[in-house]
Amino acid sequence: MKRYIHESAEVHSKLVGENTQIWQFTVILEGAEIGNDCNINSHCFIENKVKIGNRVTVKCGNYLWDGIYIEDDVFIGPNVTFTNDKYPRSKQEFQVYSTRILKGATIGAASTILGGVQIGQYAMIGAGSLVTKNIPPFTLWYGNPAVQKGYVTISGEILDHNLTSKDGKKYSYSNDQILPL
To answer: Which of 9, 22, 49, 169 ranks highest by number of CB atoms within 10 Å?
Structure first.
């Protein structure tokens, strides 16, 4: 399958990968890079200095500003708010704070991600959370501000703070990996 771009989308970038789908009323600026097998839902805006890896899902209503880097296999729920300026003022120059979402991470709907943070591999951010600091790999965070509530496996299984699943299976956390015992 070749890429699909809905007729109402405005895609100025030539750097859109194969099998990527871009839906209604989405605007993608010229410098944006989007990988293969991505799904960019309707009503999204992607600025020039944004890089999106392969197999990424960006749900409806997301605006990705300059300085946002998204690795492979990331899921971004609907209406997530990203920032890239820590001290905004109207019509003034500002420093772009780079935000990195690492491989396999999930960000729940309506979360807010402050500029300059990194969300670790396979981390999970619960819906409606406010992320103000770096999130370690394989951890589960939610709340306002978000706090760590447990761990999560590559497959998305939720573990408590003792690295135990709901069915009592034990895991270990070392070298930024979750491994069954």
So the answer is: 22
